[in-house]
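Students often ask why inverse folding is considered easier than folding. One informal answer: many sequences map to the same fold, so there is more than one right answer. In these notes we will look at a single instance of the problem. The structure comes first.
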């Protein structure tokens, strides 16, 4: 996806001084019925310039295949389009560390105009949020993945007002299906069957809203 240059300029300016590196654009079918939103790219994605091309990406591709959805038919992006890093300071040195840090609220807000723009361009029938960061970016902090995974929410979503830098509700309503982040299974194998059941919900929602 090619973002408008004024948005790139704004985000690049506002990113100065933040612990974010690289930049990858969202990718996929610009007419997709299904949009997938992750958290932030990792090392593999920053190197390959392909969203979800690392270990979590393999899980995502498998889940899509299992419900019969070719990856190239969807659009994939994330709340933050750069890789969060951390700096570890000891007595002598500052070293850059990559602990797969979650993006901060400020980092999410700096990148918000890009995601808002992608959503209004693609106007997906279904938005799949992967993990809490993407879910809360769209519907607010009252929603948690453990409570809402596998639900089909139909509501106005949060968009950043670029004048006030505050979030407000969209005019249009969107269908949002909260899903666990595909990497969640690496930390808790028992989530595998829950995740599969949630993807069955996605399959049914696609049949209803995308066919
Ligand atoms: N996690 C994300 O949220 N996005 C990626 O592109 C890769 C891992």
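Output (designed amino acids):
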């Amino acid at each position: 996806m090619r973002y408008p240059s004024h948005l790139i300029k704004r985000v690049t300016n506002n990113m100065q001084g933040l612990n974010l590196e690289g930049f990858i654009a969202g990718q996929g079918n610009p007419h997709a019925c299904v949009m997938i939103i992750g958290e932030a790219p990792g090392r593999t994605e920053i190197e390959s310039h392909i969203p979800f091309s690392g270990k979590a990406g393999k899980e995502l591709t498998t889940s899509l295949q299992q419900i019969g959805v070719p990856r190239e038919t969807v659009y994939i992006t994330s709340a933050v389009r750069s890789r969060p890093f951390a700096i570890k300071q000891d007595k002598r040195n500052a070293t850059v560390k990559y602990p797969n840090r979650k993006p901060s609220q400020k980092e999410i807000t700096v990148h918000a105009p890009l995601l808002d723009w992608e959503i209004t361009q693609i106007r997906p029938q279904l938005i799949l949020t992967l993990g809490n960061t993407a879910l809360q970016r769209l519907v607010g902090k009252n929603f948690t993945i453990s409570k809402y995974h596998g639900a089909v929410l139909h509501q106005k979503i949060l968009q950043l007002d670029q004048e006030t830098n505050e979030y407000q509700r969209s005019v249009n309503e969107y269908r949002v299906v909260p899903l666990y982040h595909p990497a969640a299974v690496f930390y808790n194998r028992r989530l595998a069957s829950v995740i599969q059941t949630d993807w069955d919900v996605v399959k049914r929602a696609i049949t209803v809203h995308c066919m």
